[in-house]
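Model it.
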Amino acid sequence: MLQQPNSHDLRLPRLLEATFVVVIGLELIAPYVTHTLGVDGRLQMKMILEYNHLISSGIFIPTWTPEGFYHFGATTFYFYPPLTFYLSAIIYRVGVQNPMVLFQTVCLLMTIASFFSARWLLWKLGSSQYRANLAAALYAFAPLRIAELYMRSSIATHITYVFLPLICGALIIIFQEAKSFSLKRALLLGLTCSLTALTDVPIAVMVAIGGALAAIVIWKKLKWTSTFEVLIGLGIAGALAAYHFVSSVTAQSFSRLQDLHFPHRPSDILVYFHLGPGTYYMALLYAAAGIIALAYVWLKWKKIAITHTEAMLGKVGLTIAAFILYLDLFPISSIVWNHFPPLDLVQFPWRFYPLLLLLGVLLVGLAQSPILVRTARWVSTVWILGAILPIVLVVFSLHIFHPFERPLEDATEYLPIYFNPSIYANDDRTAVERALAPHKDDAPALGDLSSNENIQRATNAPYLETYAVSFRAPQPIVFHRFYWPFWHLYIGDYEIPSHPDTLGRAVATLPAGTYTATWKLERTPLETAGLWISGVGWVGVLLFYGIGLVRKRVRKRVTSSP
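Modeled.
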């Protein structure tokens, strides 16, 4: 442990504890008694189902989505991180196959897992059992988590809450214990960082920025050994995640990822004066952060001694909180948002709010000075009482949140760039539907054919299609799929050139004769290199932990033998 258990214990009033138990109970049953789904829910639920279909077809590292946009296809899985879908696939195989139940079950399991990851962090830092359980529960069942589940329904962001305490714990262990290099600590950091990146890119970038701010605050205490260990850990993370992000880099110029970039204007500050769930959750988080800040100001003013842990928590946590507050003030932060590329990937300041949540959790679990113990009690009270209203609205389906009514849909930012830009602009989903819906029932292959010419699809696998062709003369054929450079058309070993038509569909001129034409989705050499890097990395991690487990059991047997 890094410190001794807290000398001043924290205990909430019995009534508040009972209230929190009720809130937790309501949150645990909420997924199965509500039909509420947030703005991202339909997109992510559709991606979960499509990913499961691809895995069921034997494609274990999906990229292209054949069923997207009326079977014109989508580039979704070249870009959207996969861990969410792998977790969903496991639950799907267990027997939970209803889309809504599957979605909510994964969310519930990740809520429970985040409780244990936060509890592990607090246990590592020497928190007492009561405090560790209380703070971990505040982390897992905080009002902000209700927002992620029911206002946004961002299952990917929700899953990253499992990894944030693990990353924080890995960094603290490295900086506290790194007297000599330890591959085990570097692997822990690398593994948790890679899992975060493979779940949610904006959150991963947010974590990197938060870590950089923490390093700036404590730079005088940094040691070369610990810094080297962190760099090795980040290198391991890069290797483990390479297979996905190399594909993303390879394909990015062929898709509409610019739709994920949001310009920020000074007038955006007005958003925070529109009362709603977002404003409510921001107020709760800033109230908690404000209580902590006032307590530290009081301690400084009165020159009251605090522990080393509390001092470090104050320096790092409140610096990050001040940075987040600055990002929320668009009149003075918009220029930074628009000219600092990492923030462009983060997109919005509320992506940083989990760090405020983690700040409060650490305070509740680690405060020792009497005034900070009282502060921790106030923070707990704010979060517990603040969670009552939103969870009641969810459980009783009082639709201040978004009801689950609209059908599942594709994310338009993953349309290929070859889809006609005169039809589609500025994420206009209605325009996309108008353009594609009239073609949704088109044949797999269309051409101006005579009565004794034909082309029929013989095989329809997700990443492989074959066509039986019989032409008297060369014919231009329009296929029912968006043009994508990684789809290649072959007759035997000879590749037939293809190009997009005005709608963005793949077009190829097939020669005369009777033969089989084959479409294949192929990986680029760079993608293959990424797969090898990640494959070697994951095998190495599994071997390292496997050997460590065997050694631990052997030592245990030797120790217990007479």
